[in-house]
Amino acid sequence: MVKLSRYLMVPMLGVLMGTTSFAQEMTDVGTPRSETLIVQTFDGKVATPDAQNPFISYAIWRGFRELGWSSLWEMDTASGQSYPELADGMPEVLNAEHTKFRIKIRPGVFWSDGVEFTTADMAYTLDTAFKYREKLTRVSGYTSIVKSWTVIDPYTMEVETSEPSYSFETSMGVYTWGARFVPVPKHIFEPQGENVVTFKNAPAVTLGPYKIKAFDPNGFWQLWERREDWQRSGWGNLGEPKAKYVLYKDFGAEETRTLAFVQNQYDIDTFMSPDSIQAAKARNPNIQTFSDRFPYHDMNDACSWAVYMNQQKAPYDLEAVRWALALSLDLKQVGITALSGQFKVAALPIADTPVTNPIYYEASAQFLNDLTLADGYKPYDPNFGADLVAALKAQGAPESELPTAENIAASFGGGWWKHDPAQAEKLLASVGMTKGADGFFTMPDGSPWVVTLTTPGDWNKNLQRLGFSIADSWKKAGFNVSVQQVDNGEFGSTQSTNSKLDVMLNWGNTCVYNANWRNSWGVFKSDNVKDATSDEPLNGNWMRVTDQGIFDIVTKSASLPTGSAENIANGNAIAQKLTATMQAINLMSIPTTVPTNSTYWTNYSKQDNFYAAPYTWWSSFKKTLVNITPTGK
Amino acid sequence: MGIVQYVAKRLGLFLAVLFIGLTITFFLPRLMPVNPIDGYISQLMSLSSGSLSSEAVAELRVNLEELYGLKGDLLSQYVSYLERVLLRFDFGPSFAYYPATVSDVVLNALPWTLALLLTTTVLGWALGNMVGLVAGYFHTKRLATLLEIVGILIYPIPYYILAVSVILLFAYVFPVFPLSATFPVGEMSLNKLGLILYNAFLPALALVLAGFGWNILSMKALAIATTEEPYVTYARLKGASNWTRMTRYVFRNAMLPQVTALALSIGTIFNGALLTEIIFSYPGVGLIMRTAATGGDYNVLYGVITISIIAVATAGLIIDLIYPLLDPRIRHK
Questions:
Q1: pLDDT tens per residue across span B1-30
Q2: Which of A28, A500, A537 has the CB atom closest to B178's CB atom?
Q3: How far is CA A266 from CA A141, A259, A595, B155, in A?
Q4: pLDDT of B233 higher than 70
Q5: What's the average model confidence in pLDDT over A404-428?
């Protein structure tokens, strides 16, 4: 007998499918849909959308970083190489100590109001930053490294740094995607006088090929319009951006976002969860992920997720305990449970990307394979990826969507640690930690041991899910885990305060993106070590590294050119030291899910059509804008 | 007790509530395990891919302490806070949205919150009580049972489910309204007002439905009880019509606790409606509060909570003062 529900299902599905073909001629903000690229904002709704002053708030999302501001040197996030944007070439080093630099800027770059960009703007920016440095909240990144500056002519300037700098282009330009130094228009800011410290600067005069057409005072959307003189903009030399308008909008909670995406209300999403993406794809064939095969998304974010442990606090100060935690973690199952198997592992405390792989992973391949613990145990599993493929196949993943044998490492990573709870138990027993009557491991003195794992709350759903899965995996292995979900603010406090940190999921010190490892690991120094129970905040070193050997390497590398063999070898040495003693359990590249909808725009960068990293908040979005084409709908 | 004494006593209570509320408001956020400076620095470090030097972070930390007014011991900060708030109603700068002041941040969101919640609270109250009154007065009729069922069905539905159902039905299955609001910018005009109403319809509908069920059930119970009162029976024996008995006898007496509930509901609207704002992408005080709470933005929390305390206390004061006008028994007493 056919169930009543089936009679209801058919017309319901028909209605649902029917609503997928929802075409708009005009957007909600009054621009032609066929000329407007609509992007989900990275940061949701903004409370003060009129805060557009780079000295204070650095409006970075909703297009400012890609479309509005420009940097002296950008970074090609696919290759990890800096390239000149406002600058006319790379900085010229003027002395052997690497403290004096000459910067030439390209003539013929104009602000969106028609005034030419010159070194006067850069000098004004530096002058103002130093004059009001106690009152400006976004200048310490460069006021702490710049010592003095001299304008030579409207297109030439010389800068002296307070310390030797071997990557001046990333200190004053972009490193991965954020730039510390953002030049402001002198002709707009100077008339403000002292009020520059509270000046909102809205709508901002911009250097990029887009100008602000309108923004929602409630912070839900911002509309950019291509400048007519886009060729004279900061990155006009890249080519003509195809979208006349770019609308950044927050489409709300993930549930409504998914529905809106299915209805073709926007073109590019940011960090939608894998489940929602699958649901959306099932309803709208125009919705696509970066790849049709696992792990479906581009896994080359600059940072990797890791478990950071308070190494100054017992029992995490014991190497055996840290290794036991790593070997007890069934990352295969964790990744399948939390991320539907869409992840790429990374055994070193560095994301495994096409940029970092040749520099660090290839160089450390032998090290990982040979790594042996004190009792002779070899923890590395080079077959992690193959085993993950088998597990996914067993769970019903279509074979056509799984990577082929030669692509497993590129898709799922080269390898990770074995899942061996028995070995973990041996390690813990070696330091006097055995299971109590309740089945959980205890401290060496027999007292109960609870692992407090701090994870983000709803503000980072994927990491939140990962946290719960990790806790579950550890519990099965005999660790008594208490998960503490925290909001953004408390996450920052826990991260920087010893007394609050036990174990947490984090990424802040695992952001080595290229040979310039000092940009991320320069914080490993003795100044950034406090007492195990201290309430005083740290200014870096979230991993709580106390290894003097690592501190010494960091210190002596300060005078080495970034790309030099010696500097790279030092970076590898630190990575291997951190790994050998398991000072952080690195997990995986941050899975950046950026699905696209090809109803109105096509030719997005995909795995089989790769021209740029697909992230809308990186420099690569500039290439995306230049390459996408309208479908004419 | 004379009127002057009565009013004076209520006013004194009102001021005491305000002072205690302000004091608790100052200390409570300080107990949160969140340091606003750490929150900002963490955000900044994340934006810089962790590449800010320790020296830059240290300098920033010192500057922020100064700018946020977090220097000095707790007592001196408390005294400074009371002085600013009581004398100048100045809550200082927002930490999360520095250098925007708390007033800027809150006043931007407040009109949206007030417009939506005031309208829907009053509408939900009025409609729910009217339906409840009819259901209670005619409680022996089948129609009354039907009306009660409406209330019973709607009331227990969690707000989140109700809101998502409204979106699914009216913005996805039958896409009459937008999935997420896009409020127009520019000067107010008829067209802009129309667009605002169009975009605000779904959140308003969800809120009215959410309050509707409770008002039906509560008013029905009160109406049934009041209908059994001897004075209503007397009015029926005197020959008063159903309409007269229902409105002048039953409603006037049954509505007293409902008026209290309405006044207190209106007082709490200054907290915003967080779920509504999240689900419907509606600008309001709720989201501001949430960001302030998670980011340790003490000043914004002070501002919003203080406004809320003042609103609720004032609502309570107004109730106390107008009750004698509504209920002759209290007036006589």
A1: 577 888 888 888 888 888 888 888 888 777
A2: A28
A3: 35, 10, 11, 35
A4: yes
A5: 95
Count interface pairs A-B at CB distance under 8 A.
231
Name the DSSP class of B116.
H
Where do we find the tokens 């809106």? A260
B163 at interface of A, judged by CB pairs closer than 8 A: no
Residue labelled with tokens 């002041």:
B101
Calculate ∠ Cα A493-A497-A500, nearest 5°: 85
Angstrom distance (rounded) from CA B118 to CA B267: 10
| Among B53, B102, B291, the residue to mutate for chain A (most A Cβ within 10 A) | B53
Domains with residue ranges and CATH for chain A: 33-238 (3.40.190.10), 304-589 (3.10.105.10)
Q: What are phi and psi of A513, to 5 degrees?
A: -105, -25
CA A242/CA A76 separation, integer angstroms: 20
Q: Quote the pLDDT of residue B91.
A: 82
Max CA pair span of chain B? 88
**Nearest residue, CB atoms, A527 vs list B46, B54, B280:** B54
DSSP calls for A460-506: GHHHHHHHHHHHHHHHHHT-EEEEEEE-HHHHHHHHHBGGG-SEEEE
Longest Cα pair distance anywhere in chain A, in angstroms?
88
| Share above pLDDT 70 across residues of chain A, in percent, rounded to a whole number | 96
Q: How confident is the model at residue A553 (pLDDT cuts 50, 70, 90)?
A: very high
What CATH number belongs to B109-296? 1.10.3720.10
How does pLDDT run across A440-450, given as a tens digit for each residue?
A: 999 999 999 99
Alpha-carbon separation of residue B245 from A186, A294, A611, B231 (angstroms): 76, 72, 78, 10
Phi/psi at A249 (nearest 5 deg)? Answer: -145, 145
CA distance A607 to B15: 66
β partners of residue B205: none
Looking at the complex, report in whole angstroms how far the Cα of residue A128 sits from the nearest Cα belonging to chain B.
16
Instruction: Please state the rounded mean pLDDT for residues B100-104.
Output: 84
B178 reaches A (C-beta below 8 A): yes
Torsion of Cα atoms, B270 then B275 then B281 then B287, to 10°: 50
CB-closest option in B39, B50, B167 to A508 = B50
CA closest to A199 among chain B residues: B99
Is the CB of B187 inside 8 Å of chain A's CB atoms? Answer: no
User: Which of B96, B185, B279 has the CB atom closest to A252's CB atom?
Assistant: B279
Share of chain A above pLDDT 90, in %: 78
- d(CA B213, nearest CA chain A) in Å: 25
ipTM: 0.80
In a 3-state reduction of DSSP, which class is residue A156? strand
* Residue B203, C-beta contacts closer than 8 angstroms, at least 6 positions apart: B116, B163, B181, B273, B276, B279, B280, B282
Q: Which of A461, A487, A495, A617 to mutate to test the interface with B (most CBs of B within 10 A)?
A: A487
Q: Which residue has the higher pLDDT, B153 or A366?
A: A366
Residues A588-624, buried b or exposed e (16+ Cβ, 10 A)?
Answer: bbbbbbbbbbbbbbbebbbbeeeebbbbbbbbbbbbb
Distance to chain B for A395, nearest Cα, Å: 32
Facing B279 at nearest CB: one of A180, A256, A539: A256
**pLDDT bracket for residue B332 (50, 70, 90):** low
Contacts of A140 in chain B (CB under 8 A): 52, 56-57, 59-60, 63
Q: Which residue of B has its CA nearest to A144?
A: B56
Q: Does B61 touch chain A (CB under 8 A)?
A: yes
The per-residue pLDDT for B46 is 61
Closest approach of chain B CAs to the CA of A389, in angstroms? 31
pTM (2 d.p.): 0.86
